[in-house]
Amino acid sequence: MARFLFLFLLFFFFFFSISPLPFTISQPIYSLCDRSRNFTASSPFQANLDRLIGSLIASTPSTGFANNTIGDAPDVIYGLAVCRGDLGFDHCRNCLSNATNDAKSSCPGNKGGTVFYADCLLRYSDVNFLGRSTYTQWWIANGNNVTTTPVPLFNRLLGGLLNNLTAQAATSSRRFAADSVVLNDFQRVYALVQCTGDLSPRACSDCLKDEIGTIPTCCNGRRGARVYGGSCFIRYEIYPFVNDSSVGSASPQPRAAISPPGQAKKNQSATIIVAIVVAVFAVLTFSGIIMIYKRKKKRKDPFRYTLSKKMEDASEERDSLIFSLDDLKLATLDFSDQNKLGEGGFGKVYKGTLKDGQIIAVKRLVKNNGEGLDEFKNEIVLVAKLQHRNLVRLLGYCLQAQEKILVYEYLPNKSLDKFIFDPSKSKFLTWEKRMRIIEGIGRGLLYLHEDSRFKIIHRDLKANNILLDENMTAKIADFGLARLFGNEQTYGNTQRIAGTYGYMAPEYVMHGHISTKSDVYSFGVLLLEIMTGKRCVGFHGSSPPTDFISYISRLWMEGNPLKFLDKDIADCCPPDEALRCFHVGLLCTQLDPLERPNMSNVVLFLSSSSISLPPVSPVSEYSDTSSNRSQYSNRKTLTMRSLPKASSTVDNSASISDSTTLELR
Question: Is 1.10.10.10 the CATH classification of the domain at 417-664?
């Protein structure tokens, strides 16, 4: 209801108070002259230049762009003129008339020159540049850093907006596009991009992308900026500066007559006052009617009213998270492979850009028979409420045409496994970065177990499901297997064992026992992978062959775990800190769940070096009587001297990749 009232008020205010943005002819903001080649006054080149400029001004205002070639070598001259795509006829003509005079005075005697106005551009040269991108750039950054929006978020939203506009402009007949994107509850950022009309769609796109690439360097977090080149230009501001009435039209049209400034201001003030009075009166009247109706309804049947209200709120909450399939197809270019970020046992993940410029990650789940949709929706609402800096934020979902799609925030550095298991990238994960990642995962898991409204067991914590943002902050992702517990519940059972080989706790694999200690085990495995740079899956230690956890435990008992430290950090990490991390990892992966610390202690152990750690229990080796993985998948009995730490001694003839998810039934 509150949303309806807000929209009602907004409609009245917008309807009565909207008015066109005024335009003024500005002064030239930049001139670029080619002083390497000159001509003399009264020469044939001078005559050709005058003819060229006259022809450009005569033909540009009707289309917003013109180019021409006058004369023969050696006095040939090429030129173009372009007006901003949202300008009207008169404004374009006046801007180019001023540019003509400025070109002659700014570049006297030069055979090449470009004059930049805020609203138009005039360029000429004795060298043919038509149809070719020119990457000479010049920029203006306006204002100080953005104060109401974090700079990384501002850059991400702005980048998405400019990328979308680039795609639109490149395919537009006018090579122009403009739009805006919401920054926060009180602010938007407005932008336009434009190429000269002689460029092909590909050349236009390349030119604009090159200019977009300069923004983080020249204008990082600035409130507004303009980037100019000889073939394209970009502008963005935190206030509206585009003439919306011209955006999207086939060509600029002459603007209607404008009232005298004083009279226009009076008319606008009167209009706004009337709009506010009418809107307030309408809202108050409407609100009074609704309140009277609700009181009568509640008095008649208070129980039914309360139940209905809860159902209505839940429904509205779910509706607010819904994305349409058409919007997601548009955002991902119809789930094209070029936008695919990854693939796992539950589906594929694509990068997408929404209409408002926001970049998203779209997880398209494997299609099924459509059962359990209500439960799916309720779980989505639950996960969407989880707000923590170390959890990937779920933005919404789509249930349409047999599709189950989840929409998440996009994180540019993708998943942790792309770094720690790649020799070419692992060196970028310094000791300090690895510690921040480990501690971030721990804090995110602690939030799920103890600090959120509900106790949540993730059940699939692994390197693939840890995503990294632009600052390499770790965020836990993929809650497809998450299990919800009551706040006082500590233990559960399941007949459906689902998870990833090597990360699953032994009591979960063997008996279906679920608890927070199941996640603690997975965290310990992940911590040790980060320390060693080795995958737990498929690892076979030598003399004798043993699994990942048992091998590290044996090195620990021999007093030499640093032997297994990732070589990329071996020379730069403090040995005592590395030993402490190995110690915590082995505590988390102990066979007995009761001996494993909870996540609050794990976070404390990692953050404070003054706290003494309990000893690590020895790990017993085990043998597997199965001769192949299928027997293990069917939950055949393992012959053990102790409960196994991981099943890596199982024959891997039917190998399982790190992204494969087991479902043991």
Answer: no
